[in-house]
Amino acid sequence: MPRNQEVIRQWRLLHALESSRHGATIDGLANELDVTTRTIRRDLAALQEAGFPLFDFQDDTDRVRWRLEGQAFKGLDTGFTLAELCALYLSRNLLEAVAGTPFQRDLSLAFARLEGALSPRMRQFLDRLPTVLTAKSGPRAGGDRSSSDVVARLLEATLHLRVATMRYHSVSSGRDKDYVLHPYRLAFAQGGLYLLAFVPEYDDIRTFAVDRILSVSLEKQTFTPQRPVPEDIFGNSLGVNTGPAERVELRFDAEVGPYVRARVWHQSQELRELADGHLALTLHVCHDWALRSWILSWGPFVEVVDPRSLASEIAADLTAARTRYGAPA
């Protein structure tokens, strides 16, 4: 823990120096970070040794000030500040969620450029930060169908409004089907890449999992978008769905109340304390498998109050589960 605290403190020191337009005194830095001046001197020396461009100078009143040179990366003209570039370098740990997607190669190349802009000693310093900042990748789409060629064609179709023909494997029907569609947007969600496209045959916008696209080709003709696509594409769903939102009310037992309160499960949620100690949660979301599986994940600690149709579906799922395990209904 002391080692982690040291790294975090030195990271805060870098921010303090970068945000100081006219430089900062050691006393001022010590007050801002709530440490001794001796600690600040030791951290400044450590950062200089790591290769960060720190220097001291005397101001008009002969006070010694410290400054961080902002133009540290002459070979990477991005307009980013030093702290921003360091944060981007660190974010590779948080972007593991997209590993295995067609963008992985581009991410690797981008991070390679950032690494080239940092000195070896800077990278050694920054590589200590992931020990206090980690990320766990969520489930990712399997298979290798979402090839770079397919994604490249879809990106070209969305950018240039090109009509596309696609062969797609539907999990629900278990068969392959051909589509003519107008690709609107690609979206990355919950470990998978999805295509939102207008399908003239259905006169509707449909969502397709890119990893289930068997082939895609672009036609010469272009299209005019028929309907706007919301910025928050899957905003009505707890998962990946574009259905209409409906009101859902759930009642949680008091013993799981703290866990329910601890997170924002959806931007529409409203919490209400009940007289008997239970917790009421109201959501405005679409009724899809993501919602049902989330409710079922709470086991016996939750009850669907409204709508009754959803309560019946959950009850049927629980009955089927009991039957599977040989338990009496």
- Strand neighbour order, sheet with most strands: 6-5-4-3-7
- Portion in strands: 15-25%
- For the termini, the CA-CA separation is 51 Å
Count structural domains: 3
CATH fold type of the largest domain:
Arc Repressor Mutant, subunit A
Characteristics of this structure?
5-stranded antiparallel sheet, 329 residues, extended, SH3 type barrels, single chain, alpha+beta, 4-stranded antiparallel sheet
Descriptive overview:
The chain is of the alpha+beta class. The chain has three domains: 1-137, Winged helix-like DNA-binding domain superfamily/Winged helix DNA-binding domain (Arc Repressor Mutant, subunit A, Orthogonal Bundle); 148-222, SH3 type barrels, CATH 2.30.30; 246-324, no CATH class. It is 34% helix and 25% strand. It contains ten helices and eleven strands. It has helices at 2-19, 26-33, 37-49, 82-90, 104-117, 120-126, 148-160, 257-261, 289-296, 308-324; strands at residues 54-58, 64-68, 162-170, 175-189, 192-199, 204-209, 213-222, 246-252, 270-273, 279-285, 302-306. The strands form three sheets. It has a five-stranded antiparallel sheet with strand order 6-5-4-3-7, covered by helices on one side. A hairpin with a 5-residue loop joins strand 1 and strand 2 (64-68). The protein is extended, with a radius of gyration of 27 Å. The two termini are 51 Å apart. The model has no long low-confidence stretch (mean pLDDT 82).
